[in-house]
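Design a sequence for this backbone.
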């Protein structure tokens, strides 16, 4: 890694790096993604170095120092900030799909009567497979602790509602209070946690 710049405009950071070949670039890219959660990443390779210098034009006494950089050294396209917001919306949409799939699978688990009924048993297997698949996709951006907290928390709330509405499993006051606290925790994470990309 040669340099890291904090930028204004649509992108927050600009990273300049030098790698030997594509396998080295892939390891660098995966390591960067693992350390710094990002919603949008764009990169390209320099085909030919025309000119690069960090010296200031000291021969002109009245000249003000100007910070310059090569034009688009990493090939970052200037996408509007709205597209980054849309990328985050897709991540949360996948998380919602994971929650709904897990809710359907758990509800079918009750209806399968210990896997003695074929239809609900198939729903259980497919539902949990979809739930973990979409949950894994959200981990490209969301930290695993945050993603799992929202996934399991919302799942608990939805399962409690389905248990009450479908299976007639009533909740007492402590159970209702605990469910409300779970929802409150999810709201706190979304509104105040810096670990969650916004």
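Sequence:
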């Amino acid at each position: 890694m040669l340099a890291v710049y904090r930028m204004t405009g649509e992108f927050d950071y600009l990273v300049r790096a030098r790698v030997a070949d594509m396998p080295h670039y892939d390891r660098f890219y995966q390591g960067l993604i693992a350390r710094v959660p990002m919603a949008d990443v764009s990169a390209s390779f320099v085909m030919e170095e025309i000119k690069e210098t960090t010296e200031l034009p000291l021969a002109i006494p009245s000249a003000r120092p100007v910070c310059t950089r090569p034009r688009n050294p990493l090939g970052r396209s200037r996408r509007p900030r709205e597209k980054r917001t849309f990328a985050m919306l897709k991540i949360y949409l996948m998380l919602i799909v994971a929650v709904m799939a897990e809710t359907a699978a758990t509800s079918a688990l009750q209806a399968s009567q210990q896997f003695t009924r074929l239809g609900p048993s198939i729903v259980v297997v497919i539902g949990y497979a979809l739930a973990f698949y979409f949950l894994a996709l959200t981990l490209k951006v969301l930290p695993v602790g945050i993603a799992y907290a929202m996934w399991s928390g919302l799942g608990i709330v939805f399962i409690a509602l389905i248990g009450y509405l479908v299976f007639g499993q009533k909740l007492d006051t402590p159970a209702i209070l605990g469910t409300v606290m779970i929802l409150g925790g999810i709201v706190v994470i979304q509104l105040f946690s810096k670990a969650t990309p916004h």
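The helical segments are 22-35, 81-111, 118-138, 144-165, 173-192.
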